[in-house]
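Ticket #408: bound-state structure for flavin-adenine dinucleotide.
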Amino acid sequence: MNRRTISKEKFIENVELHPMRQQEDTDIAIVGGGICGLATALALHRKGINALVFEKSETTRAVGSAITIFTNGWRALDQLGVASKLRSTAIPITGLHELSLDDGSSQKIPLRSEELRCLKRSVLIETLVQELPASISYFGCQVVTIKSDPLTAFPILHFRDGNSIKAKFVIGCDGANSVVSKFLGLKPAQYLSSCSILGFTNYPHGHGLESESIRMRRGSISVGRIPVDDKVVYWFVGRKWTPQDSDISKDPEMIRESALESTGNFPEEVVEMIRKCDIGSLILTRLKYHAPWDILFGRFTTGTVTVAGDAMHLWAPFLGQGASAAIEDAIVLARCLAQHLTRNKVQAPLQTYVKQRRMRLVKLSTQTYLTGMLLEPSSVIVHYLCLMLLMVFFHDMLGHTRYNCGPL
Ligand SMILES: Cc1cc2nc3c(=O)[nH]c(=O)nc-3n(C[C@H](O)[C@H](O)[C@H](O)COP(=O)(O)OP(=O)(O)OC[C@H]3O[C@@H](n4cnc5c(N)ncnc54)[C@H](O)[C@@H]3O)c2cc1C
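RESOLUTION: The complex was predicted; output attached.
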């Protein structure tokens, strides 16, 4: 692993542009302490660069039960130095299985060279937190606006409690409704007409399932199921969003009822899995996305402000790549800050970061977009056009999982 480090003193010396350094100044402020914010803080920490993380929740937050991580995500986690610890919590998945309950057709894709595991979100978040010095994360700090300092042009973060802080760099890892992407003038994510219900089921005596990721479809309803370990299974139900879902999403019992209602005509083992779920793990979320052209043309950096993770590229989970791409962002961003920072060109690291990430993100968002279009109601022409584009440009369906974001 490449661990070229620069000292904090050197870092400040490099970026010191205004002599009146005040106590509330910081070098790098990361807005949002989700997967991306913590991974970015850890990547910078590994390079010897200090950053402060400002998270609006009062404690670490791991909304949603689990995430699938493919080879590209594991490579990035390897660079962060946390992959082996995480691997011990999740069994390797040996194949992908698509099953249509309408016509009985089935497609199995064995995973030979690809690594796929399903991680509990809480385990990933806690592991990242444990690797970071306690003094760098601030909870209960909601950023409400960002402004440019009229004297230095450096960003100033304003918090809900009335405090503010000057930063040399601001990295927005603040998810779907990002304040930082608003500052950059990026287009907000758009809603899809579908939603997902996610949860865990714990089988105290073992689930006895194959170590495969299976997705079953009946009509417009899909159910996915992936073992996390020998006893815990992560599952999701995909269906249309309805106006009542705003209320349903606030009550876990109602979420379970809704999932059971949607899957009544699925195999009994699926219904049983949902009935016996861990009620505290349930969430219902409407899917949102940034279109590929928003990512192709988005102005992801202005001055010394940038974005990463969902704040930069929000996708529906059709490829299961959001978190992995966020961890890739973290590696590339920390590498660029460590390698390309000079006193006269403070903006260079962020410009290089955006350049290195853009086409990777455009490709991922295009594949996700086309896959999603096949599931959304559309005309026959649009449907076949999407199918054709997927076959031409993404015939290697798992090609994106073999991407390597490079060394830290
Ligand atoms: C249904 C579903 C299934 C998914 N499945 C997968 C999967 O299998 N694999 C995968 O790789 N990805 C998956 N994803 C995507 C993945 O969840 C996200 O890409 C990932 O969580 C993004 O992390 P993030 O840190 O960028 O954003 P978030 O997780 O949203 O974190 C943002 C953080 O910023 C904080 N914040 C927000 N605003 C402010 C503010 N103003 N001030 C301070 N703090 C703020 C929030 O409290 C939060 O902690 C899925 C997504 C969905 C919706």
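RESOLUTION NOTES: Residues 192-287 form a domain with the D-Amino Acid Oxidase; Chain A, domain 2 fold (CATH 3.30.9.30).
TICKET STATUS: resolved
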